[in-house]
UniProtKB/TrEMBL annotation:
Residues 1-19 form the signal peptide. Keywords: Signal. It comes from the Bacteria. This is Uncharacterized protein.
Amino acid sequence: MNLLRVVGAVGPFALVALASCSSGSGGAGLEGTASKRQALDDDAGQCVVDDGVVEHSCHHASDGPFASTTAQVYPGNVFNDVNAPHTSHTVTLPGTAGQYHGAVLYQPAVSGKFGFFTAPNVPVAIFDSAGNAVAKDNEADVPATACALLNHVTVFSLLETETYRLVFGPAVDASVRVIVESLGAGGCHSCEGADLEASVTHSPYSRTDGKSQLEHPIPFDVPSEIPVISGNAGNHWARLSFAKAGARAVRCYYRGGADVCFPSTPEQIEKGKRYVFEYCDNGLSAGARAEADRFELRVTKSGDRTAKTTADLEIEDATCHGHGHEGAAK
């Protein structure tokens, strides 16, 4: 299996204290270096999925969010689903040793190509609501050098108007991990973007900003939310900065969704799993179209006293379809 190389990303930024529990820091320039990436090919040298999708899916395999569900016997009445986007689903399969086999529902939010990443590598088939099999577009093994937590990806073209039966097996193992990712218009080098990961720890305090520098500006929609993939945002602040050559950096501010600095109840912990858009310093609103080639994401404080808080934001070319985080306005 061949591995194709493409140029990737890095970026800008600074922050202000806006309320209790928040801390500020001074401004910084737009900096960063580009990173090399790889894409998965099939045995015939045909691109199957872009490297960015593999990296993104592997990240969710490692850090979640995680969900568990039980498949139903198929053909038969299927009622559990794996619709939650950007989620590592563990699906328990009915059956007996070596012959585990079952189905879950999947309804895509947009029409297009979708990569179904699995571990272990089990047979994957999709049927529409009428029971007709959907032909595979392509598939490839995921080498351990690309992601040790995923084994295989199968690509299907799906319609947002349809609810599908995603069938696994027959399989040796009684459960399978599946991560479903939209591949945009094509899934291979067609969708540029920046995958920004920023983290902060409470004690001792440390912070890592996420930066990305693209080869040229891309149009994108200002995100309405920024997902928290580990730890908790509390009610602290995050900042997304972006710019293009010769222009001043725009700074957009987001507030943790919890009502308190350090959430302790299930309700407040759940609220703290995202940063919510507040404002941009140039008047842009969430969902507004912007253009930039340099990006930076910063989180100021952790809402979890004992764990690192990490935010992950994927910014994608707005001319592509569907692969952005659910928090980004489409």
